[in-house]
Amino acid sequence: MLLDSKVWAGMEPEREFDVVLFGATGFTGRLTAAHLASAAPAGCRWALAGRDREKLEALRARLAADRPVLAELPLLVADSAVPAGLRQVAASTRVVISTVGPYLRHGEPLVAACADAGTDYVDLTGEPEFVDLMYLRWHQRARETGARLVHACGFDSVPHDLGVLFTVNALPPGSDKLPINVQGFVRAGGTISGGTLDSALTAFSRLLPMARTARARRAVEPRPAGRRVRAVTSLPRRSRAARAWVLPLPSIDGQIVARSAAALPGYGPDFRYAHHAAVKRLPVALAAVVGAVVVVGLAQVPPLRRAVSALRRPGQGPSEQQRADSWFTVRFVGESGGRRVVAEVSGGDPGYSETAVMLAESALSLAFDQLPPTSGQVTTAEALGTALIDRLTAAGLRFSVLDPA
Ligand SMILES: NC(=O)c1ccc[n+]([C@@H]2O[C@H](COP(=O)([O-])OP(=O)(O)OC[C@H]3O[C@@H](n4cnc5c(N)ncnc54)[C@H](OP(=O)(O)O)[C@@H]3O)[C@@H](O)[C@H]2O)c1
Fold first, then answer.
1. Probe ligand 1: pick from 22, 31, 51, max atoms within 8 Å of CB?
2. What CA–CA distance (Å, rounded) separates 295 from 303?
3. What is the distance in A from the centroid of ligand 1 to the CA of 184?
4. Maximum distance among all alpha carbons in the chain?
5. For the domain bounded by 5-154+354-389, which CATH number is listed?
6. 79 Cβ inside 6 Å of ligand 1
7. Ligand 1: distance of its center to the CA of 225 in Å?
8. Where are the alpha helices (DSSP H) in 264-384?
9. Where are the alpha helices (DSSP H) in 17-171?
């Protein structure tokens, strides 16, 4: 259910804004600002934030060229290296969006400010170490203040997290009393931005600290009582279900899905998820494996990492035409009690055009939808669930059941 923004404003008079977009002048930030400009409901009080006032003014002028009313959009200047300014941003609004990455380098002070201020927070990170560190350092504080900290609100991991929720919901009634097995098969075509390249190389260069932080999290995070939840890895193979060659995809997505499964009893007493990349032709699959090994290898050597990173500068990304030619589909096969359902989530340019929609709609959902009560570090399926599926469907992404159980 959508609540009028004025109703919320009346309930929380002390906050000046409903939504603040931090990192608005970056590549994904600009696309997110454009989506907010068209999708924010009437009466929504939102603002652009970033470290450079001139860039913010130029962005506002571009937005106002299409929508003159945005000429007065408020601008907040803050730097991720200056915690006092971030505390002001967090205290000024009900929801903060951050596109300021790599998050391991820039992200924590804003998460801390939001956790302390009881402000809801969404970001685009796909960096597992960052998410685990934020859990260890800020989950408990956010539980105390009521802040919802929702990481990975872009292509990492919204289609996968919500696609699994959609698939589980499409299984026959009673499946929540039985073991459930879901497989996800990702196919995508697109180009990456400078910010994504930098963040990925940063994450690849820190495999040991990432594993250590994951272990530290596992040691303290409670497990769901009386239920079993696993993200599993399977071997490369030809899959009839995917009609493609499938490779294990060790992105953050499987971890996020497993966290949603741990939080949501509807995923049943024994839930298993396997996440794959799917490719039609064997030579492409082999090239993908070799390419991934080479990039992870280069990331281990600082001068080589810097050389690869320089191929795309921060702020740069795919052109409008490249984005228009990009696409993704994620097919899900869910099985329970001998019944099987096949579902699919699909859309246009995964990394940027659709990511900006997913991120902005996640923030609007936190601001205006009636959602289950949650707090602390929470996933998109747990905090936003079917409300976000409805929003994304209205915004043009497709969630469909291809083969009902
Ligand atoms: N997982 C996904 O699905 C997905 C998809 C897209 C992007 N991402 C992630 O999103 C992040 C942004 O990507 P992008 O391509 O948009 O990067 P980008 O173009 O380089 O934008 C980064 C933004 O961060 C700002 N920034 C940098 N240092 C700052 C500081 N000290 N204080 C305040 N702001 C600062 C930049 O400000 P200036 O404009 O002033 O330089 C810019 O607005 C990356 O981490 C990327 O991996 C994830």
1. 51
2. 13
3. 28
4. 60
5. 3.40.50.720
6. yes
7. 38
8. 282-299, 302-309, 320-324, 353-368, 380-383
9. 27-39, 53-66, 83-92, 103-106, 108-117, 128-145, 158-170
The best mutation among 59, 196, 309, 345 to test binding of ligand 1, ranked by most ligand atoms within 8 Å of the C-beta, falls on 196
From 385, 149, 353, select the one nearest 267 (Cα to Cα): 385
Q: What is the pLDDT of residue 13?
A: 53
Q: Is the CB of 346 under 6 A from ligand 1?
A: no
Please work out whether the CB of residue 190 comes within 6 Å of at least one atom of ligand 1: no
- Segment 289-321, tens digit of pLDDT: 888 899 999 999 999 999 989 989 889 999 999
Q: 147 C-alpha vs ligand 1 centroid, how far in Å?
A: 23
Instruction: Fill in the amino acid letter for 372.
Output: P
Q: Are 111 and 376 spatial neighbours (Cβ–Cβ below 8 Å)?
A: no
Measured between alpha carbons, how far is 169 from 167 in angstroms, rounded to an integer?
Answer: 5
CA distance 309 to 305: 6
Residue 318 amino acid letter: P
Q: Is 107 in the pocket of ligand 1 (CB under 6 A)?
A: no
What is the reported pLDDT for 318?
95
**What is the pLDDT, as a whole number, of residue 9?**
43
Contact yes or no for 16/45 (Cβ under 8 A): yes
Domain chopping of the chain, boundaries? 5-154+354-389, 158-349+399-403
The CA 54 to ligand 1 mean position distance, Å, reads 17
Note if the pTM is more than 0.85: yes
Query: Does the bond joining 5 to the residue before it have cis omega, within 30 degrees of 0?
Result: no
C-alpha of residue 390 to centroid of ligand 1, in Å = 27
pLDDT at residue 10, as a whole number: 44
List of the chain residues with pLDDT < 50: 1-10
Residue to substitute in 25, 100, 361, 379 for testing ligand 1 pocket (most ligand atoms within 8 angstroms of CB): 100
